[in-house]
Write a structure and sequence with these properties.
The complex is a heterodimer of chains A (about 130) and B (about 120). With about 130 residues, chain A is an all-alpha fold. Chain A contains 5 helices and no strands. Chain A is elongated. Chain B has a domain of about 60 residues. The longest helix of chain B is centred in the middle third of the chain and has 29 residues. The chains are: A mainly alpha (about 130), B mainly alpha (about 120).
Chain lengths: ~130, ~120
């Protein structure tokens, strides 16, 4: 299945109207909505990366910018949440299409990965802001 | 109906764009928990984070970081191409946008490499 398959095509290909097709279309939708948020986040993050690595990375330099910076915290919290929505959909697709996992197992793998990213990502935001 | 792709499809630029998008996404997904863990070192103080940053300050890590920046830019620009195809007024595979996505990724890679050496 190509990455450009539309929700309607997915529904048609998987038997149209079944619960699995609706779930797959919903995942497709959330992957795209989160992608729109992530496109902006990644663009900003790339600028931050290039700015930050100039002259080498040091904890004092990084944390000096991030500690107590609530705008930074809000931006990266949104980034983490959008990633936790976006990444698991792709992981589940790859597990199903390339890894041979069943529909249910792939969905659970996605949920576990979502939880992992959400907990570890928000923990990282707390770590550098507080 | 099972959707299949064969060798002819694999010779198409749009298939390579799809494969690169998927592989870059997978690499970024694997990297993210490690990235979050490394930043989480700051919970134990500046010295703990600095310890990791010093450990990672070696050519192999810098090269890997450069690769991740390129993959991130590639995944983003490739993803924007998909969004424009799916939600924009255009139709077709937009092969010229594949080239634009690759160019934007190369630009990000150069900017990062330049920032590393100045």
């Amino acid at each position: 299945m190509s990455a450009t398959t539309s929700a309607a095509e997915i529904a048609a290909a998987t038997g149209g109207g079944s619960a699995a097709a609706v779930a797959q279309a919903r995942r497709w939708y959330w992957q795209r909505i989160s992608a729109m948020v992530l496109a902006v986040c990644v663009l900003v993050h790339l600028v931050v990366i290039v700015y930050a690595v100039r002259g080498g990375l040091s904890a004092d330099e990084i944390l000096g910018r991030t500690r107590g910076n609530w705008g930074f915290a809000a931006f990266y919290a949104v980034f983490v949440v959008a990633s936790a929505v976006h990444v698991p959909v792709g992981i589940a697709n790859i597990a199903r299409e390339w890894g041979g996992l069943g529909e249910g197992a792939a969905a659970w793998l996605g949920r576990a990965f979502a939880l992992l990213l959400l907990v570890m990502g928000l923990r990282a935001v707390v770590a550098v802001v507080t | 109906m099972k959707l299949r792709s064969d060798a002819r499809a694999h010779r198409h630029p749009a298939w390579w764009a799809f494969a690169l998008h998927r592989l870059s996404g997978l690499a970024l997904a694997v990297f993210l928990p490690l990235h979050f863990w490394a930043l989480g070192r700051a919970l134990h103080g500046n010295a703990a984070l600095d310890g990791f940053l010093r450990f990672a300050d070696r050519p192999l890590f810098k090269f890997a970081e450069w690769g991740l920046v390129v993959l991130l830019a590639l995944h983003m620009t490739g993803g924007v191409r998909l969004l424009l195809i799916e939600f924009g007024p255009w139709s077709g595979l937009r092969k010229n946008w594949i080239a634009a996505a690759a160019g934007a990724a190369a630009l990000a890679g150069l900017a990062f490499a330049l920032a590393l050496v100045v």
